Amino acid sequence: MRLLIVEDDTDLATRLQGVLRQHGFAVDVCHNGVDGEFQGQEFPYDAIVLDLGLPDSPGLEVLGRWRAGGLRTPVLILTARDTWQQKVEGLQGGADDYLTKPFHEAELVARLQALIRRSRDQADPVLRVQGLELDEDTQSVRRGARRWDLTATEFRLLRYFMHHPGRILSKSRLTDHVYEMDADKDSNVIEVYVNRLRRKLGNDIITTRRGQGYVFGESGCD
């Protein structure tokens, strides 16, 4: 899954990017409201972390324009203002959750994971699809009695597949959700990771649709 952090504190943004990467997310960062607003509108994120005290364009205004334009991506706001009025304004403006600075990084991770699960109607941190159980806390997958640890990219790719079973997913769409903005986005790399997942989980788990992309679970898994 892919996240956007819009935060003008570069040290904090860099630290959060590292923590979230460790938990299996691809993470892009913007340091002002103008760039953040554009990035959030133009690219497909699974969730956004938005600071309210941004230069160029305040966070609440960015959020308001996102929602007015129809953006439905879950947004968690960060605020240094520990007042109930600011929290209410953020939630009324379209935020899905908030954290007050300073905060524990583990809480941010947990809240983002919960936001994404709610947006996908997934109650359990263990994702169960087609006989597979994907645990986002350990970044591992289980099938029956067998368990495999996954690399960060394998985990992000399999998680996206499992959220879209039976659907044709193009290489470009997979790339958009698996890789960060400045990553090498050679579409052939997706094929490499698909083959890695097949070697671990079985060739039947992901079907190739020539000229279209891939389908997860099309053949069925027991």
Describe the protein:
The protein contains eight helices and twelve strands. The mean pLDDT is 88. The longest helix has 15 residues, at 105-119. Helix 2 (33-42) packs parallel to helix 3 (59-68) and helix 7 crosses helix 8 (187-201). By secondary structure, it is an alpha/beta fold.
List keywords for this structure.
41% helix; 8 helices; 222 residues; 12 strands; five-stranded parallel β-sheet; alpha/beta
Topology readout:
Layout: E1 2-6, H1 10-22, E2 26-30, H2 33-42, E3 47-51, H3 59-68, E4 75-79, H4 84-92, E5 97-100, H5 105-119, E6 126-129, E7 132-135, E8 140-143, E9 146-149, H6 152-163, E10 168-169, H7 171-178, H8 187-201, E11 206-209, E12 213-216
Parallel strand pairs: 1-2, 1-3, 3-4, 4-5
Antiparallel strand pairs: 6-7, 7-8, 8-9, 10-12, 11-12
